[in-house]
Design goal:
Number of helices: 11
Largest sheet: 6 strands, mixed
Shape: rod-shaped
Family: Belongs to the LysR transcriptional regulatory family.
Keywords: DNA-binding, Transcription, Transcription regulation
Strand content: 15-25%
Domain HTH lysR-type: 8-60
Distance between the termini: 62 Å
Oligomer: single chain
Helix content: 40-55%
Protein name: LysR family transcriptional regulator
InterPro entries: HTH-type_LysR_regulators, LysR_HTH_N, LysR_subst-bd, WH-like_DNA-bd_sf, WH_DNA-bd_sf
Radius of gyration: 31 Å
Length: 313
């Protein structure tokens, strides 16, 4: 135990052994040093901690309270030591995460930079994967945590935070759709479209919309890469169909506009920060998780569009 706990070391040994001499032998210190420490504290608190009996020392009621406090202090010190050891380990700490493609810009890189500026010993590995591959990486223990769509059906995942994102039209500012907060899917009839391809998670929602509306989409281009779809919209190739999450950075910068598709059959998609239910994150992983969790709300449809609305005001 640390040097500043000298009194408790002496007191607890005497309380346990019932003898200053026996405590001195066990601790390898002089009996007078132990007696002096105990007398000083008794004088300070104004009450004896021991009954002095011919057979030895016995704890008084105050001594029992002090002994219980000492036991609690000892347990707390063990916990503190463990946390300090974790902090020392941060010099070699490494955290692995898996994210979907849409998160490769914006909040996640910013959160990583923030945590590394405060804890430069943490290194971070980021795997950008398809939605199902993110889930598999988390459940297999390949990564410490992941961010993915629709985790509710998986019992082996624990959700730390979640937000809702929505499907919408992505256009250049000045396009007629850019003036609308929301529009029905039929609003894109006759317009050239740039649509997601498998394995992007939104493909199923678009297929449902197409099937129920009976529309025949004018597919100008398709891609399985969100950045490619975004770039094609920026180049003026057509209207993109993506989630609010996919274009947060561009919308907030005023480069693109997002119009929610309002058809009643569409439901918001759940984006979740998940860990493996069977594992406890390391201290370093916990720090990174907390940083991401604190700003997770800004990934929601409301949070992601807020800055664009302020800039337009």
């Amino acid at each position: 135990m640390p040097a500043f706990s000298r009194f408790l070391r002496y007191f607890m040994a005497v309380g346990r052994l019932g003898s200053i001499r026996k405590a001195a032998d066990e601790l390898n210190v002089s009996a007078s040093a132990i007696a002096r420490q105990i007398l000083n504290v008794e004088a300070e608190i104004g009450t004896p901690l021991f009954e002095r009996l011919p057979s030895g020392l016995r704890l008084t009621a105050a001594g029992e309270i002090m002994m219980a406090a000492g036991n609690r202090w000892n347990k707390n010190m063990i916990d503190v030591r463990a946390q300090i050891e974790d902090l020392r380990g941060l010099k070699r700490g490494h955290v692995e995460m898996a994210i979907i493609d849409a998160l490769a810009k914006g909040h996640i890189p910013a959160a990583i930079c923030s945590i590394q500026s405060r804890f430069p010993g943490i290194t971070v590995g980021v795997k950008v994967l398809g939605n199902d591959e993110v889930r598999k990486a988390v459940t297999s223990g390949e990564v410490d945590f992941g961010i993915l769509f629709e985790p509710q059906s998986y019992r082996d995942l624990s959700v730390r935070a979640f937000v809702e994102v929505v499907l919408g039209f992505v256009t250049l500012p000045g396009h007629p759709l850019s003036e609308l907060d929301e529009a029905r899917f039929s609003a894109c009839t006759g317009s050239p479209l740039i649509v997601p391809a498998e394995p992007l998670a939104v493909c199923q929602q678009i297929a449902v919309l197409e099937g129920t509306s009976g529309m025949e989409l004018e597919r100008k281009a398709s891609s399985d890469n969100i950045q490619m779809i975004t770039s094609l919209v920026l180049e003026g190739s057509g209207i993109g169909i993506l989630t609010s999450l996919d274009v947060i950075t561009e919308v907030q910068a005023g480069l693109l506009s997002f119009t929610r598709i309002s058809d009643a059959l569409l439901r918001p998609m759940t984006l979740a920060l998940c860990t493996n239910s069977a594992r406890t994150p390391s201290y370093a992983a916990g720090l990174v998780l907390s940083e991401i969790e604190n700003g997770f709300a800004q990934l929601s449809y409301t949070g992601s569009m807020k800055r664009n609305e302020e800039n337009s005001a």
